[in-house]
Amino acid sequence: MSQTDRNFMTLQFAAKSENESFARVTVAAFVSQLDPTMDEITDLKTVVSEAVTNSIIHGYDEDPEGIVTISASIEGDTVTLVVEDKGRGIEDLELAKQPLFTSKPELERSGMGFTIMENFMDEFDVTSEMGGGTSIRMKKRIVSKKALYN
C-alpha cells in the first residue's frame, strides 16, 4: 500500500464533557472521505462518544486539566481509532469490560461503554496502567455506499 492510500489525524482537547460532541463530529468528518453509510457513521460517533466520556469521567474524574487524545487513520477501507488519556487507569480491566459494570453508579452510568465499543467495531482492545492512563484501540472496515449500489 502506498503512502497515498493512508490518511491520518490527531486531535487533543481538554477533558470537558462539552468536548465530547466536538470529538464525535470531528471523527465523523474525517471518516466521511470513505463515503460510509449512515449506520457506519452512527456506530463510529457512538464509540467515540463512549471512549471520550470514559476518559473524562473515569480517567480524569472530570478534571478539565486532563487531556484526551484521539488518533484516527485510514488505510484502504479501514479506519483505526485510538482514544487515550493519561488519567488514573483502570484497576481491574477484566471487571471493567463486563456488561453493566460501572465504577460510578452514583452518576447513573450504564456500564455498557466497553460492550458497545466491542460490538460496534471489528477490532477492540484496551490497555491501561494504574496512574498512567488508558488507551482504547478500535478498527472498523467501511463498506462505502458506492460499493453497495454498484
From TrEMBL:
Its EC number is 2.7.11.1. Keywords: ATP-binding, Kinase, Nucleotide-binding, Serine/threonine-protein kinase, Sporulation, Transferase. Residues 39-144 form the Histidine kinase/HSP90-like ATPase domain. It catalyses: L-seryl-[protein] + ATP = O-phospho-L-seryl-[protein] + ADP + H(+); L-threonyl-[protein] + ATP = O-phospho-L-threonyl-[protein] + ADP + H(+). The keyword Translocase does not apply. InterPro entries: Anti-sigma-factor_SerPK (IPR050267), Anti-sigma_F (IPR010194), HATPase_C_sf (IPR036890), HATPase_dom (IPR003594). It holds the Pfam family HATPase_c_2. It is an enzyme of class 2 (transferase). Gene3D superfamilies: Histidine kinase-like ATPase, C-terminal domain (3.30.565.10). Belongs to the anti-sigma-factor family. Binds to sigma F and blocks its ability to form an RNA polymerase holoenzyme (E-sigma F). Phosphorylates SpoIIAA on a serine residue. This phosphorylation may enable SpoIIAA to act as an anti-anti-sigma factor that counteracts SpoIIAB and thus releases sigma F from inhibition. This is Anti-sigma F factor. The lineage of its organism: Bacteria, Bacillati, Bacillota, Bacilli, Bacillales.
